Protein 1
Amino acid sequence: MLTAYLDEAGQEGREDVIIAGYIGSDEAWDRLLIKWKAALYPRRSVHVRTLRWNGRRAARLMAKLGPIPDECGLQRVIGHVRVADYADLFTELQLRKLVPGYQMALHALINSVLRWIPKHEQVKFYFEQQDVFARQQHVVLTAYSQMPCFKMGSGQSQLAGWAALPKGTYFEPADALAYTVLQYARDPRSERFKVCSPFMGNRWSLGARPTSGLSQ
């Protein structure tokens, strides 16, 4: 069983919407928990959006934290859409109800993950608790759980389940990665992307937009 923890960025806007996080085994997540807390100390938690960006502390912290998921054997997963690319094809009501950016980004991510994992493997997705996205998560994930192309030989879906959980350490790498990808999408030359870039590491990213330069 694989487990993915996901977070989002840019979901409030009409431009780039990102859902991103990491997927891996329980053993990989156990290693991350130990290393992450040790690297954070004496902090108890981190929320990237609230960091002070006008000094060197943020850069030092990102440099310490960014490589940890790779070192623990976790794989980056990214769903990225630019709402402006298709917004003019729909009315405002249709855009909000039928094709919101969050839902489209989630489609991209889930589809990429299920195509990537071995046919005998299952995955469970965890989202940070946000009621505003609960319906969209239910619609997308229910659809994928019923698709014959993602069934194992036993007839079970490769999508084992999903749940929303309160904030916690496992979501912090996803928060940082989603923020990093958003900064890249807005301006890859920006200082904030440079500071956050350790989260992109040297390994490929599953599910990134083909034009973003973040996938291989």
Protein 2
Amino acid sequence: MRTIHLSREQRHLAWDNALEPVVVAAPGDELVLELADASGGQLLPTADASAIGRLDFAAVNPCTGPVLVEGLAEDAELVVSILEIATEGWAWTANIPGFGLLSSDFPEPHLWISTVANGVITTPTGIELPARPMIGTIGLAPADPGRTPLLVPTKAGGNMDIAQLGAGSTLHLPAQVTGGLLSAGDTHAIQGDGEVCGTGAETPATVRLRLDVAVERSSSTPWYEHAVRRPETAWTCTTGIGPDLFQAARDATLRAVEIVSKSSGIDPIDAYLLLSLAGELRVSEIVDSPNWVVSMHVPASFAHP
């Protein structure tokens, strides 16, 4: 077994199976990857909301890699064990105009710079959240030739933003090309299910992964095992009900924004960003046609209607 280190400068900005690998790894090897934040270093701890308008969106969501894995055939499965995620001491969360579940309700740019220390995230509102580091983007190169934006997840993984992909989780990725071409980026100090405003607590980080190969593919899309549990024991939950699943998600989230803002005394835009970090948006019912139910679960510690 070897330990292979890649710096965050060994990055790329699109999925493309024609990319040359920066390193070749073997099953059993560990990777230590330095990952840039989702802005690619464009947002700094001193930034304010005006920096959002200067973002170069062609340079966001960079990924470290790609890594070619020996013995990984295009009909096999890469097994990635997430061993450790060490974030930096700060994180940003933004409302980016035109982006996010409630983009029409919150059209103005808004930026949080939070501190991350001793397992606690302190937001600009003063509300503290337990850190729960995770990897937003991790995947293999897609089978189709040409460039695919890193923001778009594929059947080989990518920008899945699964809140449970933290240390202790194991991710299974179906290879699309020989060697897989693994890359990762977009680490968060915490993110709620749904990432409703479009950003989590975005932060640079160093992650440690172990690679294994399953010769027989068990799924045509990524799957994962996790033991992540939220420390809160009480939740306040809102609902959205109707025939349009997307609109139901918006309705549940808007109601939660109202409750959090009223209860905590923070502005609605801040409640929206808070839900993107700590809320859990779930499909509660999708069988009772013609109406479906979506629920937004909010830690009751800061949401009492």
